[in-house]
Amino acid sequence: MNAESVPLLVLRFRDIERPLGQTIELHRDVIKRRGTTWWGWLYRSYERCPVTELAALQQQLREEPHIIGLYDTGQGAVYKAMCRDVTFQDYLEASPEPSLTPEYYNGRTAPAWFQLSSIDDEDPDWIVGRVCAGLPSATEDCAVDLLGSHIYKLADLRRQEVTLSRLGPN
Known about the structure:
Layout: E1 8-13, H1 22-34, E2 37-41, H2 51-63, E3 66-72, E4 77-93, E5 110-122, E6 132-134, H3 154-158, E7 164-167
Parallel strand pairs: 1-3
Antiparallel strand pairs: 1-7, 2-5, 3-4, 4-5, 6-7
């Protein structure tokens, strides 16, 4: 199966406690120094942890690394990240390895942590044009009108009330 036909998992984030762009910079710095970093999925209080979907991803990652997307809604920036592992639970937990996590992030807890070995700038067209194939963290309290539709601009993905999306091929 070619990489472009595999659904793309996209994690939304925004620099809130850090200056714009610093979340990416700090994670890249850990990768540069240590070869890998942990990225916490900081979901919204009304989202759920999609345990079934993350278990499937975890199984795939045991066979080979998988590309995921990171979407910075504050800057409208898109990143392609190489994911090597994921840990998850249906409750909040600290980073599995604080020494591989940016220091400011070590005070945070998340339902899922993604181990990344690279984070590269990507053109927004990597996401634009894809079909929203799933919003696995959505609950009945979330707007999910994008489900099954094409993403015509990044703002389409931003207006969804979830921070984890699965996008199909263009």
